[in-house]
């Protein structure tokens, strides 16, 4: 491994993803000998003579942030990456960097609710035409020669629909549109959008990348450095750069991403199978189960289906809420991707602002629960769910 006397570690060609996650981009200093990237808190950097990296003011960039960006670029196989204070700061800055009044953005109705609201209300209010009628792969039918940007998620929430990203990328390219993929649910361990033709990839780093429910963050990557420069400039103008302390937690979390996600894939599949055979469960939604509508696409595109499993409890919404209230190991709240398992009732929690008719159209029933599998023992999680289900 080559360690530059003072600087960022550039991965060797043949390094596997796990090795890149741990060493890639780390800021190492031969004089002090630090192995772990320091938290550089300086807001100002010496100039006009400058420094070799050109830092000036930390709203533009600073070394801890750049270390994260390099790591993300290596892992997502992009030429460059840009870090943000949250997933929403990343998504909004990416779209603002590309779209102007009159441009058409095509997305789907089942994307993350706040992304949907930002696109339809905020961008729509600025005169951007947002086409959000499609669900899942129906997005293919909405792309036309007027489309400038297509935005999809690798795995939708909460029904875990996997759109055919490779086909969408092809259709987008044919009409000259740019495809952005929110890869938060899949993670780069299970899917690499840029390798399948996406123009850019984005994450809420608050979820799997950081992985411990203790930090917010967002990251994007692309192979078009003109675009990443434009996104970085938008970040400078809007001020969405993350704090170095926050970024340190994301860097630290990413070092264990591989082992966490592999284990979460395995535990989620085991739980999905257990739930499928449970007498108190009506239906299970997990794209690695053969009866899920996205199973063929998931098999073709994903290495694993991630740590989120949704299931419909036999009965009504009150029965689902009763199950959610009875689990003891699994925590009742709304996020996902961390080491703690989390259970959510979408109809009254994450999707309560979605009008009833739209929720029904999306297939989000009142008896649906969403489970984000953490790193507890699979046996303890199964027993927790079994006990809660048997009690209704
Ligand atoms: N994208 C997806 C798929 C999400 O689930 C979320 C948050 O839940 C976001 C984006 C927004 O990220 P953040 O909460 O970090 O702003």
TrEMBL record:
GO CC terms of this entry: cytoplasm
Q: Which cofactor does it need?
A: pyridoxal 5'-phosphate
Example GO BP: methionine biosynthetic process
In Pfam terms, one family for this protein is Cys_Met_Meta_PP
Q: What's a Gene Ontology MF term here? A: carbon-sulfur lyase activity
Give the record's keywords alphabetically: Pyridoxal phosphate
Show which residues constitute the signal peptide: none
Protein origin, superkingdom: Archaea
Q: Which PANTHER family match?
A: TRANS-SULFURATION ENZYME FAMILY MEMBER
Q: What's the protein here called?
A: Cystathionine gamma-lyase
């Amino acid at each position: 491994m080559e360690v530059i006397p003072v600087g960022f570690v550039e991965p060797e060609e043949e390094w596997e993803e796990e090795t890149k996650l741990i060493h890639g981009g780390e800021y190492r200093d031969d004089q002090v000998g630090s192995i772990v990237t320091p938290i550089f808190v300086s807001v100002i950097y010496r100039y006009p003579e400058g420094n070799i990296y050109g830092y000036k003011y930390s709203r533009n960039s600073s070394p801890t942030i750049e270390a994260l960006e390099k790591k993300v670029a290596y892992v997502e196989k992009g030429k460059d990456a840009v870090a943000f204070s949250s997933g929403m700061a990343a998504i909004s800055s990416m779209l603002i960097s590309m779209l102007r009044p009159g441009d058409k953005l095509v997305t789907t109705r089942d994307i993350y609710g706040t992304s949907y609201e930002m696109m339809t209300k905020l961008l729509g209010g600025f005169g951007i035409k947002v086409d959000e009628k499609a669900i899942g792969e129906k997005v293919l039918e909405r792309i036309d020669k007027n489309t400038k940007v297509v935005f999809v998620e690798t795995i939708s929430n909460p029904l875990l629909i996997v759109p055919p990203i490779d086909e969408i990328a092809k259709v987008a390219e044919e009409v000259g549109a740019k495809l952005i993929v929110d890869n938060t649910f899949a993670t780069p361990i299970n899917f690499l959008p840029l390798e399948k033709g996406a123009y850019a990839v984005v994450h809420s780093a608050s979820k799997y990348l950081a992985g411990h429910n203790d930090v917010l963050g967002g990251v994007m990557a692309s192979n078009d450095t003109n675009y990443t420069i434009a996104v970085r400039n938008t970040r400078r103008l809007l001020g969405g750069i993350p704090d170095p302390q926050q970024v340190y937690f994301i860097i630290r979390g990413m070092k264990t991403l591989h082992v966490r996600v592999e284990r979460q894939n395995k535990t989620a599949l085991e739980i999905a199978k257990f739930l499928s055979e449970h007498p108190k469960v009506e239906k299970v939604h997990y794209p690695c189960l053969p009866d899920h509508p996205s199973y063929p696409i998931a098999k073709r595109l994903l290495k694993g289906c991630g740590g989120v499993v949704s299931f419909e409890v036999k009965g009504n919404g009150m029965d689902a809420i009763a199950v959610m209230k009875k689990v003891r190991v699994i925590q009742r709240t709304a996020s996902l991707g961390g080491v703690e398992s989390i259970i959510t009732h979408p109809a009254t929690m994450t999707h309560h602002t979605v009008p009833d008719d739209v929720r029904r159209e999306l297939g989000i029933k009142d008896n649906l629960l969403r489970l984000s599998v953490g790193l507890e023992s699979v046996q303890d999680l199964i027993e927790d769910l079994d006990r809660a289900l048997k009690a209704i």
